[in-house]
Fold:
Amino acid sequence: MCKKTVIEAKIIQNQEIAQGVYRMVLSAPEIAAGASCGQFVNLYPKAKHTLLPRPISICEIGEDTLTLVYGVVGEGTREFAGYNAGETIRVSSAIGTGFKPQKTKTAVLVGGGIGVPPLVELAKQMSGEKIAVIGFRDEPFLKEELEKAGAKVYIATDSGKTGFKGNVIELIQEQGISGDYFYSCGPKVMLKALAAYCESINTPVQVSLEERMGCGYGACVGCVCKIKENTETGYEHKKVCKDGPVFLGSEVVWDE
Ligand code: FES
Structure:
């Protein structure tokens, strides 16, 4: 099991920023001090029937605060959405192996839906030119935060209601967006297509496989993925919640 501390943190803000997507700001100096971009925390619901924690990726790390952006997808996250500022919530220390920001001339940050939040802290921690290409079904969020972190932002939506109509890879190609390093977080189908695209242009990409997580705790084994290794089979099973969620796109075995 992953070693972690759990504290009772005060909620400073918990607001809906897009339909079914909430930003929660916690006062948690001790957790913020040990956190890095691309990691996640476990949030604990109070309701007895949903005792398992929910892994939520870190969107921003402040001096004393931690900002989490989460989608309401089940009972636990529905409960979180009902909390008000001033209440407290149990939260773990930061878990997992996150992004490793590289020294680059131009970094391209590619996010899909609820995979966009970790890119905000990543953009904040990187120098050099930053381009964010973010895709949504319909309603975008976190554009301003990425711009504030110094990124030029391109938006794609499935509906075409905002920005480019299509997916992020089509947008990258249409706009001729290029860089010397890519980072990405979002649905597996997007990450897989981006890893193939990056391979075709001979550019490295770090991918966050957080969509695959279950308990975020090392307990459910629901998060295992295959990572290329010099073994008899050519791969090894790794836990997304512990060894990841971030891996190199080129080391993930995508066809499972
Ligand atoms: Fe449950 Fe990794 S998410 S073991």
Remarks:
- DSSP finds six helices and 15 strands in the chain.
- The pocket of FE2/S2 (inorganic) cluster is lined by residues 213-223, 239-241 (CB under 6 Å).
- The longest strand covers residues 6-18.
- The domain at 100-206 is CATH 3.40.50.80 (Rossmann fold).
